[in-house]
Design goal:
The chain is α/β, with parallel strands linked by helices. It is built from 20 helices and 31 strands. The site of adenosine-5'-diphosphate has 15 residues, from helix 8.
């Protein structure tokens, strides 16, 4: 009985002291507790209040918080309370993650991107928090180290095997497998030592290691022109913010030249970001980097698996990954000490993001460089007018490379007038290739040289029409024709992905023979080429056939090894690839793109055609490019033919200046969309009625968008045009704040739009 009481008394004591401790802890928390505003990666502009203990939370900390019934990972954006609610209703955060806080500069950048592009602040942040795996509990490795207990103390006999284990672990802990290998012992030896307490386990975070790139690994002998260019770029690296356009003809060695600046930034202990159009991020680029720097860079693109994404994100945040090559999304990563950005193929339209947050990646890269005070290099053979205008105004510097490397000459360009040199029908059915191009392909094959045919159109045929009743097969969700894909036997909508099996009879009149494919896609051109040259080795590159980066890499490698005679493809072919044995490029439809109403259509066509042409003749043999067209008089084609870029640019500048289009004025598009046609139209009309209109501001529209119906939503567009002196965002904020938009209608802003569909 006494014993029992005694035990009970002791338990009560323990309980009381526990209570006291937890009360003290609560008090301490209350004294130290603070309220912070956490920004979540959701469509909001405001922060949400949470309680924290002030001694462990800094601005920028990445935290996990309760969110309704779920949890969210967000970032401490503000100290102090924001919302007008009682403190007792504010929930505490769940935890502060063990990751470096986002720097002031990065938070400022996120805010800038949201304000400039008129996007939700939370969605701008979401682009930073782009690796979910990084916010989960880190994976742990169990390693073993010496506990300090000797073999004798553990009552174990001395043995060679046991001493080898002890020797191995004197300096560094290892995993069981590593001990077995390193000391040459069996698992049972290790287990005995663990059980006896000679070895003790410790947990360490599993981290992928990133080898240091070596700036001196394999220096390339630069030509004197390249050397001069490289020196200028290298000098920029230590001078704070600057923007330099590296303007060099295709094949001039721009990559080799900017690699020197990369090496310089590395020698200063900085991280470097190289952005490339996603599809150019093939093994070819990676191979060149590895040859120059001795290691692989860290990659960042949409095709990364979860594990690689997580590892890379953390390593970038901790500064362990030194060179990052990535698509535009890499611009939002939380670099620890970024010191240089290179935007390769800086003219490329893939830098413009058009879903979620609309932004121009090239321009945002310049903003980030400016905010963090480091240099940025824009490399291209076909700079866009905006960039050239900044050079003219002295805001950007320019470094030029005027000749191709190693006596390679720019290719000769010939125009084929399809009205005179008409493609001939044959066993292949309708032909898409002029007789002179067919002849050229034939003789190139005989010489054993490689050829490439370019057509910027996926699939087999862009349109199916019924010859009996005139019916055209349209997407039920979009204002668009369905494209025939013969390899998958489907009709596909290229805007929403809707797809149906190719019908056997006309859905309108039931005709069994009426359905006819109209016009060519790459698959159809390939069919003709295969029929004409049955012995040639032919490959097709197009996003439906070679859908992943590794598929594209594979075809590119085959091309490099000379295992392909004729490569046929879409614009993927235009992106920076280098094929020394390619001597003939045929552009199947040079008119495609020239007829669009989009303000950048001509510039883009010029860029695309020059880039594709630039693939030819990059080795010792001279290349030739054939452009098939119905309009040989077109100014863009003439400019390409004469190789006179300045002439083309001055024409283009004149038009844009006259129409006050960028870079001589500002543009923003409003896209109003909704499933209910009437409601959507009403909002569009309201916006039109109260549209600002002054000498320096004008609004076009509302009008039905060219793709009036997209994914089942009706769409209207308005275009706001202002002079350069006006801050277009301010105009938009004021304008938009004056209409009431029902929740079922969406108003999207696109600053400096590229896409007018
Ligand atoms: P660009 O990007 O200007 O089109 P690249 O950088 O791709 O040109 O260079 C074209 C080709 O010439 C590449 O295969 C590159 O390795 C090679 N090259 C360029 N400069 C040199 C050099 N100085 N030494 C050796 N090879 C070079
Ligand atoms: Zn029909
Ligand atoms: Zn569709």
């Amino acid at each position: 009985m006494r014993i029992f009481l005694c035990v009970k008394y002791k338990q009560i004591c323990i309980k009381q002291s526990r209570l006291l401790l937890s009360a003290l802890e609560k008090l301490r928390k209350k004294i130290l507790s603070e309220i912070v505003g956490v920004l979540l990666p959701l469509p909001f502009n405001d922060v949400f209040d949470y309680k924290v203990e002030s001694d462990n939370v800094a601005l920028g900390s990445i935290v996990r918080v309760p969110w309704g019934r779920e949890q969210q990972v967000g970032v401490v954006w503000k100290l102090g309370k924001s919302a007008d609610i009682s403190e007792s209703k504010i929930k505490p955060i769940i935890e502060v993650l063990r990751l470096p806080p986002l720097s002031d500069a990065l938070r400022k950048f996120v805010s800038f991107v949201a304000t400039y592009n008129m996007a939700f602040l939370g969605l701008s942040l979401k682009m930073v928090l782009s690796a979910k795996g990084a916010f989960e509990d880190p994976k742990m490795n169990v390693l073993y180290t010496l506990s300090g207990k000797t073999l004798a103390e553990a009552k174990l006999k001395n043995s060679d095997a046991r001493w080898r284990v002890i020797d191995l672990l004197k300096h560094y802990p290892y995993s069981r497998a590593e001990i077995a290998k390193g000391a040459g012992v069996s698992q049972s030896v290790i287990k005995t030592m663990i059980d006896a307490g000679v070895l003790k386990p410790i947990e360490v975070e599993k981290k992928k290691e990133f080898a240091e790139p070596k700036g001196e690994f394999h220096k390339v002998d630069l030509t004197s022109e390249q050397k001069a260019a490289a020196e200028q770029l290298v000098a920029k690296v230590s001078e704070g913010f600057s923007v330099t356009l590296l303007d060099g003809v295709t094949g001039s060695g721009k990559t080799e030249v900017y690699f020197e600046a990369v090496a310089e930034a590395l020698s200063k202990g900085k991280q470097v970001l190289v952005t490339v159009p996603e599809i150019a991020l093939t093994s070819q680029w990676l191979g060149r980097f590895e040859r120059r720097f001795g290691v692989k860079p860290a990659c960042w693109h949409s095709g990364l698996g979860t594990k690689e994404r997580t590892d890379n994100w953390i390593a970038i945040a901790e500064g362990r990954a030194k060179v990052i090559v990535g698509a535009r999304s890499a611009l939002f990563l939380p670099y620890k000490n970024l010191g240089l950005i290179v935007v390769d193929e800086s003219h490329d339209h893939s830098y413009k993001q058009e879903d979620g947050v609309n932004y121009q990646g090239r321009d945002m890269a310049v903003v980030r460089a400016k905010m963090e005070a480091f240099p940025i290099i824009l490399a291209t053979a076909t700079p866009d007018l905006e960039t050239l205008n900044n050079v003219d105004e002295g805001k950007y510097d320019v470094v030029k490379l005027t000749s191709r490397y190693a006596a390679a000459e720019l290719p000769k360009i010939e125009i084929i007038d399809l009205k005179k040199d008409k493609p001939q029908k044959g066993e292949w059915g309708t032909s898409w290739l002029a007789p002179s191009l067919v002849e050229a392909l034939k003789s190139n094959l005989q010489k054993g040289e490689q050829s490439m045919l370019f057509l910027n159109r996926r699939g087999y045929a862009p349109l199916i029409i019924c010859r009996d009743c005139g019916h055209r097969i349209q997407c039920p969700h979009c204002t668009a024709w369905l494209t025939e894909h013969r390899n998958t036997k489907n009709l596909v909508c290229h805007h929403c992905g809707y797809s149906i099996p190719i019908p056997e009879t006309c859905p309108e009149c039931g005709s069994q023979t009426g359905l006819t494919a109209c016009g060519p896609g790459v698959e159809r051109v390939a069919e003709e080429v295969k029929c004409r040259f049955p012995d040639a080795r032919i490959r097709v590159i197009s996003s439906d056939i070679t859908s992943t980066l590794s598929d594209v890499s594979e075809v590119i490698q085959e091309m490099e090894k000379g295992e392909v005679d004729i490569l046929i493809g879409t614009q993927i072919l235009a992106k920076g690839h280098h094929f020394p044995c390619l001597t003939l490029v045929g552009i199947v439809d040079a008119d495609l793109g020239l007829m669009g109403s989009d303000l950048r259509a001509t510039e883009q066509t010029y860029q695309l055609l020059s880039q594709v042409s630039g693939r030819a003749g990059r080795g010792e043999k001279k290349g030739i490019v054939y452009l098939q067209t119905l309009y040989p008089e077109n100014a863009v084609l003439k400019a390409l033919l004469s190789g006179n870029r300045e002439e083309f640019l001055s024409l283009e500048k004149k038009t844009r200046r006259m129409l006050k289009l960028p870079p001589y004025g500002r543009l923003a598009a409003l896209i109003i969309s909704g499933a209910n046609q009437e409601q959507t139209e009403r909002v569009a009309n309201q916006l039109g009625e109260i549209a600002p209109n002054t000498d320096s501001i004008s609004v076009l529209g509302p009008a039905q968008a060219p793709i009036y119906k997209l994914r089942g939503k009706f769409r209207y567009r308005l275009l706001l045009k202002t002079t350069k002196l006006i801050k277009i965002q301010d105009v938009l904020y004021q304008w938009l704040s004056r209409v009431n938009v029902p929740p079922s209608v969406r108003v999207e802003v696109d600053i400096d739009p590229y896409n007018f569909m």
